[in-house]
Amino acid sequence: MSLIKSISGIRGTIGGKTLENLTPIDTVKFAAAYGTWLKESVNKSNLKVVVGRDARISGRMIQELTMNTLTGLGIDVIDLGLSTTPTVEVAVPLEEADGGIILTASHNPKEWNALKLLNNNGEFLNGEEGAKILDIAEKASFNFAGVDDLGTIVKKDNYIDVHIKEVMKLSLVDVEKIQQAGFKVVVDGVNSTGGIAIPKLLKGLGVEVVELYCEPNGQFPHNPEPLKEHLQDICHLVQQENADLGIVVDPDVDRLAFIDEKGEMFGEEYTLVACADYVLSKTTGNTVSNLSSSRALRDISIKNGGSYKASAVGEVNVVQLMKDTNAIIGGEGNGGIIYPEAHYGRDSLVGVGLFLTHLAEKKCKVSELREEYPAYYMSKNKIQLTPELDVDGILRSVQKRHEDEEISTVDGVKIDFREYWVHLRKSNTEPIIRIYTEAKSQQEADDLAQKMIKEIKDIIA
């Protein structure tokens, strides 16, 4: 059905024809390309790679193929088994490994899987590194190890526990305050590894846990993207259980959403805003999110005496700008928290620890906390184009029309008006322009999106 190759890895649907889907042959080829790149770029004889997976049905098959390909190249493997994306990222430097592979298709449905690739810091590869691996995979000329030089596989299936201990040791995660708050929390783990990690963390923090869809069998009970329209079950259960809040993660646990005590969404965009507000209240510093994330983070940063910068969309871009600006917290508006004291990767466990400490200190309800933050509303749309159209030319025309406004061309065209903003991005895989808008009411955001769609159509005409 689909196979998508990018600098961050390869993902596709299970089954079907090679080169068109994520088949065993495609899995082996891409794992071999990554292993070959490591051998060419790391100047040492004994290489080691950490491998972990979410609970997808295809996960065990894809992991066995990946690990055995790496050992066939003479690379040793640390097998984490069922894990989370941030857990693998934490494990790579702790194991002094040369890289890592996470087997997950994130928020995609159960028929998808993917290989996501890490460097020796447990961070996603940059564009240049990813491009080299794609080139190696395309040539498909691999030099495997002889029988006496095969790699080994060592299983270490306790790393979620290690990860939890690392989170609880963070200076701004106050375990005692969380314990004293006596929180009751409903957790939706979408039947993946969040159903292991989040309840374990909460219990370690002294929180009463009500589990919903926490059996890691890969049978996702709803669309696994943590959006309002997919989360009615937990919204109802939070009310039914008289819980203080609900916690929702995606299958690989790098996106985090909260439900308030009324069964209403806290807002995925506001996960980062709340955690950043807490961190900035303790330490003055800078923040970073991507261009399509809420303006609320900028407002909170300025309120707390810090500065804010926006990166191109994509975790690797956010991380690089965070490093460049010495940001103390950052992430993406889809519920991804990046807290450098822990590591440079989106981490829902870290987000839970920071948020619950914030809530315990404020001694308020989740709905009351949400009301403290600036109210912004987003609209996400797209316009379908014909393949022969010059998408870059269209974006330049839009930019020209609004040249008197504050404009960023780091990633597409973002126009910052005084009361709202518009971000236009072209797709790399199909002839469409994605249109993101944010304003102070949902109607204004929707109207602004339609206005931009009309403007683009006028340019084309």
What would you say this structure looks like, in words?
The structure is a single chain. The protein is globular, with a radius of gyration of 22 Å. With 461 residues, the chain is an alpha/beta fold. β1 (3-6) and β2 form a beta hairpin. It has 3 domains: 3-157, Alpha-D-Glucose-1,6-Bisphosphate, subunit A, domain 3 (Alpha-D-Glucose-1,6-Bisphosphate, Chain A, domain 3); 163-371, Alpha-D-Glucose-1,6-Bisphosphate, subunit A, domain 3 (Alpha-D-Glucose-1,6-Bisphosphate, Chain A, domain 3); 377-460, Alpha-D-phosphohexomutase, C-terminal domain (TATA-Binding Protein, 2-Layer Sandwich), CATH 3.30.310. The chain is built from 15 helices and 20 strands. The chain has a 7-stranded mixed beta sheet, sandwiched between helices. Strands 16-20-19-18-17 form a 5-stranded antiparallel beta sheet. It has a 4-stranded mixed beta sheet with strand order 9-8-10-11, sandwiched between helices. This is Phosphoglucosamine mutase. InterPro entries: A-D-PHexomutase_a/b/a-I, A-D-PHexomutase_a/b/a-I/II/III, A-D-PHexomutase_a/b/a-II, A-D-PHexomutase_a/b/a-III, A-D-PHexomutase_C, A-D-PHexomutase_C_sf, A-D-PHexomutase_CS, Alpha-D-phosphohexomutase_SF. Its EC number is 5.4.2.10. Keywords: Isomerase, Magnesium, Metal-binding, Phosphoprotein. Residues 8-142, 171-263, 270-375 form the Alpha-D-phosphohexomutase alpha/beta/alpha domain.
